[in-house]
Amino acid sequence: MSDSSVIAIDAMGGDKGLEVMLAGVARARRLHDGLRFLLVGDEAAIRAGLSRHPNLSQASEVIHAADVIAGEEKPSQALRRSKTSSMGVAIDCVKQGRAGAAVSSGNTGALMAMAKLSLRTMPGIDRPALAALLPTLGDNDVVMLDLGANTECDARNLTQFAVMGAAYARIVLELDRPRVALLNIGSEDQKGTGEIKDAAQMLRAATHLPMDFTGFVEGDRLSRGDHDVIVTDGFSGNIALKTAEGTARFVADLLRRAFSSSARSKIGFLISRPATDLLRNHLDPNNHNGAVFLGLNGLVLKSHGSANEIGVATAIGNAAKMVKSDLARRIAEDLSNIDAKAAA
Amino acid sequence: MSDSSVIAIDAMGGDKGLEVMLAGVARARRLHDGLRFLLVGDEAAIRAGLSRHPNLSQASEVIHAADVIAGEEKPSQALRRSKTSSMGVAIDCVKQGRAGAAVSSGNTGALMAMAKLSLRTMPGIDRPALAALLPTLGDNDVVMLDLGANTECDARNLTQFAVMGAAYARIVLELDRPRVALLNIGSEDQKGTGEIKDAAQMLRAATHLPMDFTGFVEGDRLSRGDHDVIVTDGFSGNIALKTAEGTARFVADLLRRAFSSSARSKIGFLISRPATDLLRNHLDPNNHNGAVFLGLNGLVLKSHGSANEIGVATAIGNAAKMVKSDLARRIAEDLSNIDAKAAA
């Protein structure tokens, strides 16, 4: 695949450090021909690391940034170093038009705050939301948002997330009218918080939007494939996403124990290994890495803090796809069309 | 196992109707020798159903109740029929001392409202919470609460849930100082809602309680076995529980697909079947059915609305164990000891 996009990389963010970030970028470089990178962070450390990736060196420019935002730092603190930190400078590359997207494995709250301050939200959007594609049993992945950017949300926020999520699904899943549901603790009308009930009322009334509101969905049906977009506040979204990740790992661990419990099951495992390897591959969060902040005037992707080399490469691949499909501009267009229709 | 407990059964609640409830009770009767039942609901229908379970008839008394609480009914509506509904009459059997516990597969909100009105909360407890034991990779199950009884909770509610959950863990898991954590979207101090941060502060200060507060836990670590009690509001708890159930089913479905993807993997599956059957059995929610309302002066258990015969029997088995261990009285005792210590 040839791809002329430029991606800005926060080379210093993430739990696993510079080495894994660079290995991930080098992997993405091998997978996506023509992609170019702005590697932002401690210049000397990056140049030293690059000596192990000659192929990446040729496709990269190093941009020095002296500061690193720590994982436990408060967003308000981090904001003071927007101009000097690897995270802030990477986002600024998007603002200046030097890169089509920025990717960071760093502190989510800080990334959100900096991206919002630097790129600003699209007209009509109060807050950006963190969205990702999750695997389902159906033909398509499902878009889920917010995954942790906004701890508490009101009905207006949730409704805007629905509109942005639907626009995203129309582009990445190529659907005319995505089926949009609100995450709740029951499917009956009277279930849930006041915010969710109000959002449901607003979405039910919004029949002019290019999407179908399908009501409430419970946690046990997220991956059934009967919805295209699942909308929730950042607290519940984060709990659901992480619980799903943890449960998948839990089941995989139990499966490993079960397969090693007897000679017979070990033999069965060896024989069916190609099938179980495929499954493991399908469930590995590194193969679904890269959540995007929707609603900003520019593309910023959050890679999982504990992502390995494969995960970092997946996030960069997703960023390249979004740049190529001109995602931010198309979502903005979609939102303004909706506003125009609503006014008419 | 000989067990002289009497369990009141809401025979009409649940998505699957009277037939599955009776089959479940009959199964519990076979598994637990000496258990006796008060079967509450439409007398004619129950007697007709009992003709298929002669063994159960001998151990049961039928109590007529004309009304059934529907699944989508509001708790406030349901409360008006506390005296005439199968759910309300089953709870009243506990209040009157005729049964040691009541089990219902019906509407959770209605069950909670009726149980609270009839049995009242223990001294010092504002609201009951729905608690269940979930499987982990560790030596013990983990107690999780609230699983959906209280949609929104303040710091005081969360702190009381922690104390009740710890008392429950001390009894059912036989631990001296259970490790108690709050479910949150990060492990750092500044993460989460104001309610969670305040609850953490209160629990950190409560060093006189017979438990160890271990801070925040994220959704991906629920089943790692490094906590004994996980405390959350009913909204997040319900989302986490159902997401875990749904993900376990999702992985099992993918595994089935993987195993049937080729002749080779089918053979491997047949060979390792005893191991995968054990795993399926371990993950089947019917084998973990029966959540209890903690904090009431009496035992009321919620069986999953979609529980099958095995699930209903599991919930009844759990109820019998709780009656036998005198759970409600021992939690009350634990709470009053804590109060006495705090006052001293």
UniProtKB/TrEMBL annotation, chains A, B:
One of its GO terms (cellular component) is cytoplasm. It is found in: Cytoplasm. Catalyzes the reversible formation of acyl-phosphate (acyl-PO(4)) from acyl-[acyl-carrier-protein] (acyl-ACP). This enzyme utilizes acyl-ACP as fatty acyl donor, but not acyl-CoA. Its main location: cytoplasm. It catalyses: a fatty acyl-[ACP] + phosphate = an acyl phosphate + holo-[ACP]. The keyword Cytoplasm applies. The lineage of its organism: Bacteria, Pseudomonadati, Pseudomonadota, Alphaproteobacteria, Sphingomonadales. SUPFAM superfamilies: Isocitrate/Isopropylmalate dehydrogenase-like. GO terms for molecular function: phosphate:acyl-[acyl carrier protein] acyltransferase activity. Its EC number is 2.3.1.274. Homodimer. Probably interacts with PlsY. Keywords: Acyltransferase, Cytoplasm, Lipid biosynthesis, Lipid metabolism, Phospholipid biosynthesis, Phospholipid metabolism, Transferase. InterPro entries: FA_synthesis, Phospholipid_synth_PlsX-like. This is Phosphate acyltransferase. GO terms for biological process: fatty acid biosynthetic process; phospholipid biosynthetic process. It comes from the Bacteria. Belongs to the PlsX family. Pathway: Lipid metabolism; phospholipid metabolism. It is an enzyme of class 2 (transferase).
